[in-house]
Amino acid sequence: MPTRRPRKSARRSKPAVAELATYAVTERNSRGRRFAEPRPKTRGEFARDRDRIIHSTAFRRLEYKTQVFVNHEGDLFRTRLTHSIEVAQIARTIARAVGLNDDLTEAIALAHDLGHTPFGHAGQDALNECMAEHGGFEHNLQSLRIVDKLEERYGAFDGLNLMFETRAGILKHCSPARARELGEVAERFLTDRRPSLEAQVCNLADQIAYNNHDVDDGLRSGLITLEQLEGIGLFAMHARQAREEFPHIGGRRLIHETVRRMIDAQVTDLLAEMQARIARTGVATLEDVAAAPPLVGFSEAMQEMNRELKQFLHASLYRHYQVVRMTTKARRIVKDLFSAFLSDMRLLPEKYRELGEREGDARAIADYIAGMTDRYAIKEHRRLFAIGEL
Ligand code: MG
After folding, report:
1. How many CB atoms lie within 10 A of CB 249?
2. Is the residue at 26 inside a domain?
């Protein structure tokens, strides 16, 4: 078991508050906020970060942004909002089990997709192509840009003024050139250091969440079938277990009983592997975590099963012709919007014209488009290109 110490934010009058491991991020070892603020009275600093993210505009927009299916295709599919909540749930469970800072973990998980464009990866790829000569577009950097700069909620500063470790956890990838521009929050990309365990947990929780919910959504949409999935190790194993326990089960219940077992197996495997790696490397502090190889991961066997599932989803779901039709349309919408705005900045709301004067027109356009929900982008496209629409 990890060595534990009391959480600094714990109130003395409540002895039952969970204790954190010595390698967890705490308020004591945190690098704090960019702009000094009075301490929160009723919650910890990282809980405040989580709450700020929940109250942000970008977070609410996740409700109408999608990953695989476009928002208007049905009400039952995951959106980026429900995805982020599922990631937070899985990540929090893992964090608590090993004494990590669950408020920080939750904050990173809830913010990890804030910078996504409308229409999932198709939208991001299209916007990145549009931005090729203007510094590119990457959803991960955009998430940080939103919490650092674009949210307008406070009188004293732009953005949400989050704790350093929340911001660093949101920044999952970063090129060396961009890291030099970003400074301290990205310094680990120049020094080959690992992020906090809380951030590493969110990263894997993200994978667990989307692999499993894409199986569920894929089946619901009818684009993939139960018969196909019976040929995939991880699914087959847990479908078999579900049938053993409930011999007459079928339909949606079988799918849910299978998917919940898959999630449980992945979380259990990850926890065991993580604890083994922590014990093997003997990490005890945040510094040790930064210097160690990645500590959050699956066992070899689980990694192999995940790989098989991922390959199947890529080939059969993400590249299904009905998905490709939608993503092709999505790319066109993003590209049309971008070039229309770039050719005439007067088409943009005033706020973005002003932003363009400060940060360059293309970046302001990218901020505007990235902030759109699927349906808003469709509507905006119609307003700009359909004769007779306003
Ligand atoms: Mg995600």
Report:
1. 17
2. no
